[in-house]
Amino acid sequence: MRQGIQAPGWLAKRSTVWILLVPMVAVAGLLQLFASSLVVDIYTQFCVNLMIVLALQAFMGNSGILPFTHVGWMGIGAYASGILSMAPMVKSLGVPNMYPVLVAVQVPIPVAIVLGGVVAALVAALIGWPLMRLSNAVGVITLFATLIVMHVVMTQWDNVTNGPRTFFGLQKFTTLWIAVIGAAIVLYVVHWYRESSPGLRLRASRDDRYAAMAVGINVVQVRYIGFVFSALLAGMAGGLWAHLITSFSPKAFYILEMFVLLAMLVIGGQGSVSGAFLGTAIVTAARQFLLQVEAGINNSGALTLEVFGLTDIVMAIFMVVVLIWRPNGIVGGREFTWPLFRRRMKPAADGATGSQQT
Amino acid sequence: MIDLEFMINTVSLGSLYALLSLGLVFVYGILKLVNFAYGEYLMVAGYAMYVLGTFTGVPWYATLVLAVLTAALVSYLTELVAFRPVRTKSLTAMLVTSFAVSVFLQNVVLITISSRSRAVRFPSFFSQTITLGDATVPLRNLMIIAITIILLTALTLVMKKTVLGMAMRAAADRFTTTRLMGVPANLVISAAFLISGTLAGVVSIFWVSRSASVDPLIGMAPLLIAFIATVMGGMHSLVGAVIGGFVYGLLFNVLSITLPASLISYRDAFMFVIVILFLLFRPEGIWKGGYTEERVG
After folding, report:
1. ipTM (interface pTM)
2. What is the mean pLDDT of residues A7-12?
3. In chain B, where are the structural domains located?
4. Architecture field, domain B8-281
5. What is the least distance, in Å, from the CA of B222 to any CA of chain A?
6. What angle, rounded to 10 degrees, do the helices at B4-31 and B238-258 form?
7. Using one digit for the tens of pLDDT, what is the confidence trace for B48-85?
8. Is the Cβ pair B224, A145 closer than 8 Å?
9. What SS3 class is residue A67?
């Protein structure tokens, strides 16, 4: 019965975004003031990862399809933005046999990052339609095969990507605040998409494909929109990632990295933006901790063998435990809304205002 | 180009791929789970051969049998520990679980043994070749064909004649109804995982013997082949899986011969593009089984 503070309409409508944004920005500010540059780097990485995971949530969470290609969109964005932003001199040095046309172009870094997203979205638009027709197992396998195709192309097309070798020479552009602003924008956009008409139709198609078709939803079309939208965001996030890391190889856009992204989304809860946020935070923290432990064990020489891969083992176990204990993730497909925890006190009466349970 | 040698090699490759995809479909048919950990059963069998062959004096035939049993056991254990608790949850939960199991098994081997590849010893007749008429083929390829014939016959008999086999076929068709008839779900699913692991183990022997070495990522390539072959053949029937395996083997060998050398590194990409195009026109695969989306719940 308690109403709490009455928030103005525009605030209440996007309260989830604010609940997540305020701590994110506050922590960034505190770290900027007090923390070491190493911690700031980790937080910057977290913000970039958050963008990629939110982009993944936009499609996977709303459509129920597991898009293995996601990490590939990130890769396309990374390569495309890198090629567009690097100086011709550096490019001909780093990628000796790149096409002359590509060597010649150079645009400012922010433009390159946006264009990287556009390239990823174009590729997604080109190949997405047939993929979106497939559901269930066949769809999963085909998307998986598409990731392999992308990887083969990235490792073999050395006129563009420098083949399996490292692609280097990017300028560092992504600072803490650029990453925070980027993550904030993506957070807002993904939340908006979830509540928008195409997003709602996509969620309907996830919950019951045949019922959605019966009420006139073009399932392939809404999936297609979500797929391309997600690729656009992931491509831009990949561009920011590339200009943070500054050198990378096709290995960074493959199965193990997809596993990490999936772990972030699934542990938090794929059904909601809040879940993606929380999952990314938890997994980033846990991974950093485990990597420290791993390095500690290896450096101390307490064991005769080196324990690479401990992090991934623990992540895998953690993931399965979360799936058994809470199959919809820790947040369970809900959003945080203001006032917090109102639903628990008043389950039935206010279903129309705050309920976003899926 | 189409001579006896090509034919024998294609049939043997097809046989191997048929067994591979059959193992995947056994689980998929009943549980509707695309098992990403399937390649890791092969890997585990490969490491079993490495450990037994290098550190113990077990004779080679016992090594091979134990390797197959190890794969079956690991397959069963993953079902027991990981898949059973999430079975009733969403399809994505199960997929992600199998992905996690795969990463887990890979990294366990990475930590306990090594990330580098290890040599596996095989009896010498594995690498011998024999001459039939004007064709010279590895003896291994003929063994694959023979073992595939034996296994397919045995599995057909099991599936058609025994109660368990009939229960499994019924479960693949209508799981809920089958349970109402008094068939225990856990038994049928465990049996499917055991058969799946056994097939993976058998394939592993021949897969590993080609390079005589094993590394933690060895399961990746066979997993992909099994995926593509089953999708092509049809995910909803065992016959489809076998057909898909043979078609994949044929396609692979034909592409290997016909693609120019500059494009051979793109061969996998070509394979997948062909498959994706194929699915556009026939999403249900070559062999259309009884289509069902019912899941275990």
Report:
1. 0.82
2. 64
3. 8-281
4. Orthogonal Bundle (1.10)
5. 13
6. 140
7. 999 998 888 888 889 999 999 999 999 999 999 999 88
8. yes
9. coil
Candidate from A130, A137, A327 with C-beta closest to B90 = A327
pTM: 0.86
Smallest CA–CA distance from B283 into chain A, residue: A134
Measured between alpha carbons, how far is A112 from A236 in angstroms, rounded to an integer? 9
Q: Check CB contact under 8 Å for A138 and B293.
A: no
Residues of B in contact with A66 (CB under 8 A): 92, 95-96
pLDDT at A357: 39
What band does B255 get if pLDDT is binned at 50, 70 and 90? confident
A320–B90: do the CB atoms touch at under 8 Å?
Answer: no
What is residue B154's three-state secondary structure? helix
Q: What percent of chain A has pLDDT over 70?
A: 89
Measure the CA–CA gap between A247 and A165, rounded to whole angstroms. 10
Query: Which residues in A lie closer than 8 A to residue B34 (C-beta atoms)?
Result: 137, 140-141
> What DSSP character marks residue A320?
H
* Mean local confidence (pLDDT), A149-175: 87
Closest approach of chain A CAs to the CA of B195, in angstroms?
20
Under a CB-based contact definition with an 8 Å cutoff, are residues B12 and B139 in contact?
Answer: no
Asked if A282 and A49 count as a contact pair (C-beta separation under 8 A), the reply is no
Query: C-alpha A169: how far from its chain's center?
Result: 24
Per-residue pLDDT, A349: 39
The answer to whether residue A327 neighbours chain B at the CB level (below 8 Å) is yes
- Closest alpha carbon to A49 in A179, A175, A151: A179
**pLDDT for the residue A4:** 53
Largest interatomic CA distance in chain A: 69
**Cβ-defined contact of A136 to B107 (cutoff 8 Å):** no
CB contact under 8 Å between B101 and A320, yes or no, is yes
